[in-house]
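Input record (Table S2, row 331):
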Amino acid sequence: MLNRPLALVVGMILLLVVVWMRQPHPQTEVARTALIMGTLVEIKGVGPDKDQLEKAISEAFSAMRVEEDRFSPGIATSPVFLINHTLEPVEVGPQFLELFALGQRISAETRGAFHMGLGGLIKLWDLGSVSPRVPSEAEIKQVLPASTDTLTVINTNRVRRLSPAVQLDLGGIAKGFAVDRALEVLASAGLESASINAGGDIGLLGGHGERPWRIGIQHPREAGELLATIDLKGEAIVTSGDYERAFMLNGVRYHHIFDPQTGYPARNCQSVSVVAQSVAEADALATAAFVLGPEEGLRMLEEVSGVEGLIVAADGTIETTSGLKDQIQWQ
Ligand code: AMP
Ligand code: MG
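Output record (magnesium ion complex):
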């Protein structure tokens, strides 16, 4: 039994704690940027404790750099690099297998429009170079894999490349996967309100304070202009566009999303935005729908559960999935 004065003190302290907890705490917002996976990544965190936000955001950037090291074909220690340089089994971790399984599922759902083995083709087009060129048909034929399959998963920690024609490139999904990992870090650090934008791959934690996050969708033909905005809470939205990593030659636009059937940039869309529960899924589906084109792409997005999308066709006409119609504000 506590004696009476002590019980009184404990009671007072408890009361103060309750009163303090019921006070509205002023929220601050911290925004930081970093260059990761060749993209300017912006992380915003909202909460009462600035130091906690700063620390969590630094940890989230570190988590993204870990994924960059894992999935970049140009980093000599990455499993992707190792896989691309041998036909022998290569050891990989659970994160690699998780991303690969998701990519495989989306590849199957899109009849190979999403293809994780186009590294040879991507190197040939070399869209990142200062003077990209259009390769010849013969060159393209040489590097185009015959099958949509890329790797054999041997067991829970080893994979093997299927053939020399396959060069793994996970650029259509890895950024989204990295944003998902960073969101997990922010959530475990106690954040309830955050956004990450990695060049159009957007992942959200909660709302923007009490309200939803208002997300702008880039206009594919007017640089710096928005096509629409959409209000979201705790979801992911990813846009794939033909305006990124692109060049014009004789009035034709050449860009970085390739049709695995032809080896040329996919021709039927200007941009595709996909809303999903995870950024990795939205990322891969946006790339896949872009390749499929407005009709088949929209049908596919309607069919995948928990997913919505918006497609700007090559002629500028816009289609959305049925669930998105009421959520969009046109600009
Ligand atoms: P995103 O910006 O997410 O649409 O992804 C484009 C990137 O994915 C390219 O820069 C390539 O690294 C890779 N990629 C290109 N075409 C495809 C495709 N058909 N399937 C999967 N990945 C692709
Ligand atoms: Mg993508």
